[in-house]
Amino acid sequence: MNTAKLVRMANDIAANFDCGRDRASEVAGVVDHIGRFWSPYMLDAMARHMQSGDIGLSGLAEQALRELIEERSQSAETTHDP
Amino acid sequence: MSQAPSETALAYEAYRRPEDLGAPPSESATMVRLTIDGKTVTVPEGTTVIRAAALAGINIPKLCASDMLEPFGSCRLCLVEIEGAKGFPASCTTEVADGMEVTTQNPRLADLRRNVMELYISDHPLDCLTCPTNGDCELQDMAGAVGLRDVRYGYAGENHLDAEKDESNPYFTFDPSKCIVCSRCVRACEEVQGTYALTIDGRGFESKVAASQDQPFLDSECVSCGACVQACPTATLTETSLIEMGQPEHSVITTCAYCGVGCSFRAEMKGEEVVKMIPNKDGHANHGHSCVKGRFAFGYATHKDRITAPLIRESIDDPWREVSWEEAIGFAADKLSKIREKYGPNSIGGITSSRCTNEETYLVQKMVRSAFGNNNVDTCARVCHSPTGYGLKSTLGESAGTQAFDSVLKANVIMIIGANPTVAHPVFASQMKRRLREGARLIVIDPLQIDLVRSAHVQADCHLQLRPGTNVAIINALAHAVLSEGLEDRPYIEDRCEPDAFEDWRRFILEERNSPEALAEVTGVPAEDVRAAARLYAAGPNSAIYYGLGVSEHAQGSTMVMGIANLAMATGNLGREGVGVSPLRGQNNVQGACDMGSFPHELPGYRHISDAETRALFEREWGVELLPTPGFRIPNMFDAAIAGHFKGLYVQGEDMAQSDPDITHVSDALSSLECLIVQDLFLNETAKFAHVFLPGSSFLEKNGTFTNAERRISPVRKVMKPLAGYEDWEVTQLLANAMGYPMSYGHPSEIMDEVARLTPTFRGVSYEKLDRLGSIQWPCNEKAERGTPTMHVDTFTRGRGLFRLTPYVATQERSTARYPLLLTTGRVLSQYNVGAQTRRTKNDQWHGEDILEIHPHDAEQRGIEQDDWVGLKSRAGDTVLRADVTERVQPGVVYTTFHHPESGANVVTTDNSDWATNCPEYKVTAVQAYKVTRLSDWQLEFGDFTETQLELLRKARAPVSA
Ligand code: SF4
Ligand code: SF4
Ligand code: SF4
Ligand code: FES
């Protein structure tokens, strides 16, 4: 999967929640959004990408994705990755 | 002109001219009693005598009057006697009064009427037997009704019998020798269509109908809507198809398959052939009006390019092979199953179409979720209105427009954002223009000078001509102006919206960075203009917002939709007639495709796939287990295809290889599929990459329903057998069965019954009710038996309205030294979307190619002159178009359409997309333009590829040599 595109998508989402106010609710907004709309395949690709060095995510995007990926691995849901 | 839904909307009937009551209805609630020919009649005050009589079953002869037009009173055929009144008043202009006693027939009146008819007929050709409207002519009927036997003046005097025909318009003929100068055509063009193309030239005997400056129709301002043809009581203005085929013998009520207005039509038939399409006066979306596409452009359905037998091939370099349905379906199912085995359950998916019926769309998503076993289903609404769904759902609670079209007739202020209704939603535009002529104020927010900014008898009060890509900045600035000047509707907000979210939003909007002054630099719109528009909108009292793809097709499309909802809530403009937030949907069934669960994260009725309760409901009905996580969206499918993980795709009625942005990327994705199944009428651009082609059926060949932009579900009825043998839903069913998931629907009504069982907003919908009511606006359930014209009346669907924060984030597509211009894209009236249908009709006479509009200043700098070839380059690719140097666009902005594949506008558009829904940003691309002398490499390659694919198709059709 083209991770550059995923990174851009995540950053765009974060930018639209970033209003320079309450950080916790902004993170929650991004977590909820990505959780609702991204397929597990995309999240897995993103998780792999985030293990690399320079990941290119904005602060808000990165924080949210880490939370989301953490949440998923805890609920240990089966993913349908080819 | 709105008429109450009739309880007996008969679908199929023998042909007859639709009833005409002679004058439009009166809206008054006060009733008046009178007697007509001794019969007592009670009608609303303000009704004219002719209509009152017709309602009582008494038909007064008439020629110049019609219930589609305001009273006029020129022919004098409808005169009557009224007790106590002098002379013979015209019943079509005389209003009823309490106690009035009217006589419609007596020897005196009969004489007068015969005299009138005699004069008309003395200047009329007597070729009735060979006249195209023989058997359906009001003049002929009236001659019969008044008992005309003789014409004392003879036919030798001065007359117009030699006047020349105008056959310039491809769809109708103007034969002035038959004109009686009743001016119904002129009035229809003004009152119904609002174009003002016709006039009566000259006076007395010399008077005649003229288009624009006495030009041929095709060269005049005429937009070919056909309202004048429908209004003409003689054979002067006649459909050319009628001249060729003769009178229809039966008619069927159905729904236009072009745009989101969803006009209702009577298909007037001769056996299985359509003679003409006449807009249905009982149609609740269009009230008897239509545009050139719906009325005239149906010839594609029987075009020679239609593919009527299934085709298969192993690779896209192979010639196609014509095979039986059985073989094609077996081949497709086998391929998909093998791919799934080899690459895993996530490697296949399907795409539903906004051009197909609700039932067909529902079935495709059901097949993907059950037979394919994943949620990889998406729809082309992704590329147009997905932000509408997201934005309205999150603020108001329902992913749909809030109003009925008729609501505009109660609006005092109309705000149009990023839409060009006269071109994209012509029939609704006519209704809007009528309201504007009555005095409603108009605010236009658009980078382009759309027609409504200034046209016949319409002029915008404010035109905020913003830079492309700065919508959110403008909507924030408008909200800032409203709040900073204290123009918000406090009681409404307190009563209806979430207080904390409002406070939060208020503080955010009032930040200085959101003021019109601070944003003027970004938007290019002076702060005073923004404030003036804000005051006008807030003053109402009824202010309505209409928006189009100029809102949704942006990197911040979803944010903008939320911004619009915020503004409407803040000013109390939601929840009654005359106000609201109305997305003008592009294709006929965009609303329906979204309602039917076409998105990878949603089941029908906009319920998230992660919701266990909803899933359980569907699992019980469908007998399968559903995945709780979202599948791929179209762009994700393409990315996964290029990465080698997505291999099989079933596409019903869509053409991504032309309509989607960044075409080179799309072509790469399609080429990497191992099995692409395309179901369509024609070998479209996408089908050129396909391995299986399943012939589709046009809207004339199937039963089903479409849902228009006002949530109105309207029936589509089969008027001819499917050319290839199956309706589209039957093909999907065959494929599902072959994949091992049994389906056995016998009729689309059973599919709708299933939708109704599973979806609360559709609970009360059935074919029986649609036959009875004509159409239904969802939600339709226990709480709203007959549907819901206006939403969010007492509370919002989500309970309290939610203000969402809408930070302006500049798009990455901005002008740079390398790409200094901004390209924006749009439509023309005569063509429809990718043009696969309209290009196969005579509509091509109006728009034979896509043109690049460029401002004279930018053109001069580049040495570009009118009609020059211009190269257009973005970071995604380049193409070549012909130039139109015009001030319709601002300096720095260029504009084109994408109705023709070879123009390659989407080679240039990039993969930038809406942050929330990935709806592509068609409306802004940074480009450079320069003069060239030849087509682009892409175009040359495209030409070669097209030629190769057509050759491979010809091989399938060539007789097999033994
Ligand atoms: S076709 Fe429509 S636009 Fe053209 S002259 Fe007739 S009413 Fe006017
Ligand atoms: S063209 Fe037809 S509608 Fe127009 S004035 Fe002549 S007869 Fe009347
Ligand atoms: S306005 Fe739209 S629905 Fe109506 S006739 Fe034209 S294309 Fe068809
Ligand atoms: S119908 Fe009344 S004057 Fe013509």
Would you kindly provide a written description of the structure presented here, covering whatever features stand out?
The complex is a heterodimer of chains A (82) and B (962). Chain A is built from four helices and no strands. Chain A has helices spanning 3-17, 23-37, 40-49, 59-75. Helices cover 70% and strands 0% of the residues of chain A. By secondary structure, chain A is mainly α. Chain A has one domain (3-80). Chain B is of the alpha/beta class and 962 residues long. In chain B, 30% of the residues lie in helices and 16% in strands. Chain B has 30 helices and 37 strands. In chain B, the strands form ten sheets. Chain B has a seven-stranded mixed sheet, sandwiched between helices. A six-stranded mixed β-barrel of chain B has the order 32-36-33-35-34-37. Chain B has a five-stranded parallel sheet with strand order 21-18-17-22-23. In chain B, a hairpin with a 4-residue loop joins strand 29 and strand 30 (712-716). Chain B is globular. Chain B starts with 11 loop residues before the first strand and ends in a 5-residue tail after the last helix. In chain B, 58% of the residues are buried. Classes of the chains: A mainly alpha (82), B alpha/beta (962). Chain A binds chain B through residues 1-2, 5, 9, 12-13, 15-16, 18-19, 21, 33, 36-42, 77, 79-82, and chain B through 343-347, 374-376, 504, 508, 555-556, 558-559, 600-601, 608, 610, 627-633, 636, 639-640, 642-643, 645, 805, 807, 809, 911, 915-918. Bound molecules: iron/sulfur cluster (3 copies) and FE2/S2 (inorganic) cluster. The site of one iron/sulfur cluster has 14 residues of chain B, from helix 4.
* Oligomeric state of the chains in view: heterodimer
Assign an overall shape of chain B: globular
Bound molecules: iron/sulfur cluster, FE2/S2 (inorganic) cluster
What general form of chain A does the structure show? globular
Q: Between the first and last Cα atoms of chain B, what is the distance in angstroms?
A: 65 Å
Number of continuous helical runs of chain A: 4
Low-confidence runs of chain A (pLDDT<50, min 5 residues)? 77-82
Q: What is the average of the pLDDT values of chain B?
A: 89
The mean pLDDT of chain A is 84
